[in-house]
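Input record, target 12 of the design panel.
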């Protein structure tokens, strides 16, 4: 009886495991909802960069470059959404997966064209932009690690799954943002335009990480979902191709693994440095303090840790305490290099004071020079403003003269006014400045024959203007 009961428990347990397995398979199964023919047709349709695709690509490159230049994440995201770079990359993975050499060649060709066009556009932008500094958004694309491989991996999975579904979803815009293909290319353009080797090589590697991983993921899913192949190959050839592709991808991502390990090591070193500084500064028995950031360096293949200390002189017996703290903070094997900023001899203090005094005098002279230049510029601006005010007053005076003269003498038309600076000898034979003003006028045709009346009018107008506006000398000139 016990044996039969145990058999029933075992049978029920395996039945439960089988049920869970079937549920998981059904949950993650993609084959029922996959439109294979539609996916192949859809990817091939947008591989070629021609016409409106080229315009969109150039616009996306310009927008991404502006976003990088202005350090604006929102603008960069907009460029990612409209960029058509994803299609040739998916086409490469699809072509390898279904053994379509024609599509593979076309995808590679258009991928190369898109890459060169994007880099060229961004390079031209950064060459003519008035800014051109390496913003945080630019520097963020210059340190590719294994984490970026993970982003490209899962972004590529989401992209091919969403693209192959019978009912298209809204996941593709999110994939475009996550994989971020356009910003690294524009960062390459920035590096080329500014001649910065490190920036453009690192950014180009980040771009190819995304492109290779997305193509590789597309290849895997096409094979896993058993898309119809165009050209059949033998089983041994297929195994060899799969092995070579996998080896290429692994070798390609190896630098990103090394970069990630280096970043982790740097992060741990900085954390250990912070712990060391907290321990030293937190000791209530210390009369000195660590200032600034400790520096790690190598000298003759010996790792050293340089500390900048402010406060009282450190006795020899306290050095062992600091060295024990080094051991506790994972700096065992490092030699201690102390720089005590507040420990000086009398001669050193006098030399420092003399140097500081000299520097202060130089600073004061420089400030005085800047103030004098500023006053000169202010005086120049005042002179310009005075000249503009004088010109504006003369213009207003002319309009007043014209309106009043034409109101008093309807037959007269005031054309313009001109003033010529001159000089004259006074009673003491001294040259004095004199401004001779000319008033150009036209008279009504009916009045032109009456010379006597015109002369009378001119005399009255001249007397009125000279007294009204305090002219030195005024001549009225008839203007035909």
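The sequence produced for target 12 reads:
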């Amino acid at each position: 009886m016990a044996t039969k009961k145990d058999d029933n428990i075992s049978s029920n347990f395996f039945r439960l495991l089988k049920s869970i397995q079937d549920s998981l398979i059904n949950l993650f199964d993609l084959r029922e909802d996959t439109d294979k023919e539609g996916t192949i047709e859809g990817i091939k349709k947008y591989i070629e960069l021609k016409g409106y695709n080229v315009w969109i690509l150039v616009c996306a490159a310009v927008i991404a470059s502006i976003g990088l230049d202005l350090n604006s994440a929102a603008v960069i995201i907009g460029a990612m959404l409209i960029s058509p770079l994803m299609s040739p990359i998916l086409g490469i993975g699809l072509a390898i997966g279904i053994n379509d050499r024609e599509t593979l060649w076309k995808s590679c060709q258009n991928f190369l064209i898109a890459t060169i066009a994007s880099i060229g556009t961004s390079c031209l932008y950064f060459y003519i932009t008035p800014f051109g500094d390496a913003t945080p958004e630019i520097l963020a694309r210059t340190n590719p690690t294994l984490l970026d491989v993970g982003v490209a991996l899962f972004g590529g999975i989401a992209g091919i799954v969403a693209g192959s579904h019978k009912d298209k979803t809204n996941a593709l815009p999110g994939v475009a943002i996550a994989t971020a293909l356009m910003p690294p290319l524009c960062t390459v353009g920035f590096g080329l335009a500014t001649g910065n080797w490190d920036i453009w090589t690192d950014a180009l590697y980040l771009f190819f990480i995304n492109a290779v991983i997305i193509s590789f993921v597309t290849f895997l899913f096409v094979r896993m979902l058993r898309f119809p192949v165009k050209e059949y190959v033998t089983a041994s050839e297929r195994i060899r191709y799969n092995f070579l592709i996998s080896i290429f991808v692994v070798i390609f991502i190896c630098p990103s693994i090394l970069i990630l390990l280096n970043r982790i090591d740097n992060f741990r070193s900085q954390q250990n440095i912070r712990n060391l500084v907290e321990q030293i500064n937190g000791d209530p028995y210390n009369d000195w303090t660590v200032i600034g950031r400790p520096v790690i360096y190598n000298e003759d293949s010996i790792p050293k840790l340089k500390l900048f200390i402010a406060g009282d002189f450190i006795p020899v017996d306290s050095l062992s305490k600091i060295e024990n703290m080094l051991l506790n903070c994972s700096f065992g094997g490092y030699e201690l290099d102390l720089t005590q900023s507040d420990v000086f001899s009398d001669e050193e203090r006098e030399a420092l004071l003399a140097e500081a005094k000299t520097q202060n005098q130089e600073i004061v002279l420089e400030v005085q020079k800047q103030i004098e230049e500023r006053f000169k510029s202010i005086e120049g601006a005042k002179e310009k403003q005075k000249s503009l005010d004088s010109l504006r007053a003369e213009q207003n005076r002319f309009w007043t003269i014209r309106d009043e003269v034409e109101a008093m003498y309807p037959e007269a038309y005031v054309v313009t006014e001109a003033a010529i600076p001159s000089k004259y000898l006074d009673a003491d034979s001294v040259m004095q400045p004199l401004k001779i003003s000319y008033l150009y006028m036209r008279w009504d045709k009916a009045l032109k024959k009456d010379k006597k009346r015109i002369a009378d009018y001119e005399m009255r107008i001249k007397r009125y203007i000279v007294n009204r506006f305090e002219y030195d000398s005024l001549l009225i000139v008839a203007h035909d």
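DSSP finds 15 helices and seven strands in the chain.
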